[in-house]
Write a structure and sequence with these properties.
By secondary structure, the protein is α/β, with parallel strands linked by helices. It folds into two domains: about 100 residues, no CATH class; about 325 residues, Alpha-Beta Barrel (TIM Barrel), CATH 3.20.20.80. It has twelve helices and 15 strands. The protein is globular, with a radius of gyration of 23 Å. The protein binds ligand FHN. The site of ligand FHN has 7 residues, from loops. It comes from Devosia riboflavina.
């Protein structure tokens, strides 16, 4: 049972978000002009690139190899069940033919909308579709310059802000969110990113609910797509009138399940394959096979979802490193997905070096230090006391004659993990 199920929507009433704990595993995709720079999606900020100089990426945006069917196939084969694509990231560039800006893919050499083909391709592969929409916009002329803006150190930044009115930008956001939530069918997730009300810099304030006009924006979202899951980074009043759908820790796996106002909440951790959200040609921190699988297992064992990010190249492709990582997920999920989909925390305590995920009376023991010599299992309401795993799971010697394993449903992946499925007998059954 998704304990956070009742967080948004009336308690106990299916609110159309029940798919979330069933799916458990999604793909994040960061794609925009920054892919041409190939060195991080914040490159415009980090290098304080002027609008004039950043325009060269706009004038050369032409992902000629963009094939969302190929993206969708690789996501499905990796075992991913939903997808969230950056319709607009902080740079302000829009992947669809928005009526409210000229800063969009249809005005580049590529000349086409990317989102229609994206939603069609991923739906055809059976995935639910979401959009990431940046609250931050470094291109919009009414977005006040602040401490994270590429012009933050411009000598005239304060003067330039005098002609900027964030109310016009808040209206622009409502107009664009309306386009996204009415022009592409049912959208399962909208991932607003991010609010920073307490980050003042050189007398320029950060931005939060008042700048976004958040209450109006969230009301619009709820009206247009009643079943949509909204990320928690849109700053909203905490008076209880605006329940959060989703907590979104990122780039670390929480030690305990996140809560909001002390209440359990649906949550999803997002990670990168490489350390960078946007395509980074030279980024050297690609996760190995064991890390990839363990992040997924650790997250589900704690009751969360994993949104794993891919940053496509400027030509619109997943590069070989990304495809290798996705294939690692696919190989493991082909035999272990039933320990992930619809599974969650176990009622039992996992031995050191292992994690439990549980679904009904099926317990999944994930041995995270494979090859694992032995593990002591107790308190499962069953007779298993001690088990010795030899070179591979076909040689399990349960030192308790009554013990049994239903199946060795997984294979160790690289230095990853082995997963076993145990039937869980209720304690009162075991003498
Ligand atoms: O600034 C963004 C970043 O570029 C990326 O989109 C991540 C994804 O969670 N969110 C913000 C940083 O937290």
């Amino acid at each position: 049972m998704d304990s956070a199920h009742t967080i948004s929507g009336s308690a106990g009433v299916a609110d159309g978000k029940a798919w979330f704990p069933q799916d458990r595993f999604g793909m994040f995709i960061h794609f925009g002009l920054y892919a041409l720079a190939a060195r991080h999606e914040w490159v415009q900020h980090r290098e304080e690139i002027s609008p004039e100089n950043y325009r060269k990426y706009f004038e050369n945006f032409d992902p000629d190899l963009y094939d969302p069917k190929e993206w969708a196939r690789r996501a499905r084969e990796a075992g991913m069940k939903y997808v969230v694509l950056t319709a607009k990231h902080h740079e302000g560039f829009c992947l669809w033919d928005s009526k409210f800006t000229d800063y969009k893919a249809t005005n580049t050499p590529y000349g086409k909308d990317l989102l229609t083909a994206y939603v069609e391709a991923f739906r055809a592969e059976g995935l639910k579709v979401g959009f990431y929409y940046s609250l931050i916009d470094w291109h919009h002329p009414q977005f006040p310059i602040d401490g994270i803006h590429p012009l933050r150190n411009h000598p005239d930044a304060i003067e330039m802000n005098k002609s900027r009115d964030v109310r016009h930008y808040a209206e622009y956001m409502r107009n664009q969110v309306t386009e996204l939530l009415t022009g592409f069918g049912e959208i399962s997730v909208i991932w607003f990113d991010f609010s920073y009300p307490n980050r003042e810099y050189r007398g320029m304030p950060g931005k939060g609910r008042n700048d976004w006009e958040s209450e109006e924006l969230i009301g619009l979202v709820r009206k247009l797509q009643p079943n949509i899951i909204v990320g928690d980074r849109l700053d909203l009043p905490t008076d209880g009138n605006f329940p959060k759908d989703l907590a979104t820790p990122e780039q670390y796996t929480p030690r305990v399940a996140p809560t909001i106002n002390g209440q359990p909440v649906r949550w999803e951790v997002c990670h990168t394959l490489s350390g960078s959200w946007g395509y980074h040609r030279d980024e050297g921190t690609w996760k190995d096979e064991g890390q990839l699988i363990n992040i997924l297992v650790d997250t589900v064992a704690l009751g969360g979802n994993l949104l794993m990010n891919v940053g496509p190249t400027a030509r619109g492709t997943f590069d070989a490193r990304a495809n290798k990582a996705l294939a690692t997920y696919g190989e493991w999920m082909d035999v272990n997905s039933r320990s992930i989909y619809g599974a969650g925390p176990s009622e039992f305590k996992a031995p050191n070096g292992t994690k439990f995920t549980q679904k009904g009376n099926r317990l999944y023991l994930h041995l995270q230090n494979w090859p694992f010599r032995h593990v002591h299992i107790e308190g499962l309401g069953r007779k298993v006391k001690y088990a010795q795993f030899l070179h591979d799971a076909s040689e399990i010697h349960w030192l308790d004659p009554d013990a049994e394993v239903d199946s060795n449903i997984g294979v160790a992946v690289g230095d990853g993990i082995l997963t076993l499925e145990l039937p869980v007998l209720k304690p009162d059954v075991v003498s």
